[in-house]
Design the sequence.
DNA sequence: GTTGGTGGCCAACACTTGTTGACAAGGCTA
DNA sequence: TAGCCTTGTCAACAAGTGTTGGCCACCAAC
């Protein structure tokens, strides 16, 4: 039965390591790079396999199909700080800075954004990251927890929008701004979305 | 020579109308719809032709190739108000409201956003709209015209981000907000990006 | 009526895509 | 040594892509 191997994505789990773990990792790395650079449709399995230095059929064996590969490659942890650990009055600056770092160090965010705009399951993956990782932060910080989803959505809109303009569409002025400048402008906005009373 | 007909996109120009103008318009309408719904790669010429009720080869005759079709279909005017006509103190609310209207009434914006994230010429089209239509508004409103591009980029980041969360990724809280609510939250942000002294 | 251009369809092209199955080499255990 | 599972390659499939050229029907002018 040519069913894909189950959950051999994370070598950190208890199961014994296999000889193929290196190949699996190479596929994932290549997949993230291609998805981030080209989006879902133009990131072909053949191109990913070529970049990983193996045969395309290996991708199918280990991840079932292209959707499965994307699901594995787009697993993502924002690594947001513990809500209690950040000073209430400076959440805005802390979050903006953190997101900029994550965005510049990890291809997966760009991949998610590119794929999310064109592909249904990419968009769903994005919604899940938002629900599971962004909303809780808002809930811990904003005055009325019932409003957390809305405030989190506002924050996400500003941060995703800046990432879009800066890293994907590459509007020259957005790309040219320094990291500090971006933080200085966006932090008050995010701060307001999170902590200020309703307008 | 099978060169595509030149600039027969706008029947409003002085040239005499042709019998094929209706077909051309139908193609453009279908193209905008497919590009907006599916992005560049998945919006196939065959699907567009089917939706327009004609043969795929007609698309080639009138627009040369797929890129040419996209170029024609993504021509876009934001129809921003004259800078002088809006009260300096309420530019924020006026702009946010205007953009929400445009976004909900015209497929082209969604098409531009979807295609811009995956396709090089889509992104370039997007940068041009930004440069030619958004920056001038900022230049007319913000205190130091030399800062106009940066301030325009900030405004664009917030507005594009909200459009992304609301219309493309469909984060539930963003999609559920009323128009007035979005304006109430975003207007102060845009106002600050445009008129406030540097942070 | 004949000519010529215009609008349209049809069938095919060369190519790429995701995906599959057969098969060979290498190591593990019995 | 024999057998089995794993890792891997190769060649092919069916479907769908953008694109092309040939052909037919109409319409106007001569």
Sequence:
């Amino acid at each position: 039965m040519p069913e894909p191997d189950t959950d051999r994505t994370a070598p950190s789990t208890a199961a014994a390591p296999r000889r193929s773990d290196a190949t699996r990792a190479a596929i994932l790395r290549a997949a993230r790079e291609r998805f981030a650079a080209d989006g879902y449709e133009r990131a072909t399995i053949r191109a990913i396999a070529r970049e990983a230095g193996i045969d395309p059929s290996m991708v199918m064996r280990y991840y079932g199909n292209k959707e499965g590969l994307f699901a594995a490659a787009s697993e993502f942890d924002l690594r947001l700080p513990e809500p209690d650990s950040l000073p209430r009055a400076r959440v805005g600056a802390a979050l903006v800075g953190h997101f900029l770092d994550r965005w510049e160090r990890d291809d997966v965010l760009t991949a998610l954004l590119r794929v999310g705009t064109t592909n249904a399951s990419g968009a769903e993956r994005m919604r899940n990251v938002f629900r599971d990782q962004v909303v809780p932060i808002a809930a811990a910080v904003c005055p009325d927890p019932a409003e957390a989803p809305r405030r989190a959505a506002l924050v996400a809109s500003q941060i995703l929008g800046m990432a879009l303009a800066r890293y994907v569409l590459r509007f020259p002025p957005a790309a040219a701004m320094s990291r500090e400048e971006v933080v200085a402008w966006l932090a008050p906005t995010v701060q307001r979305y999170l902590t200020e009373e309703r307008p």
About this structure: Residues 16 and 173 of chain A are 50 Å apart (CA to CA). DSSP finds ten helices and no strands in chain A.
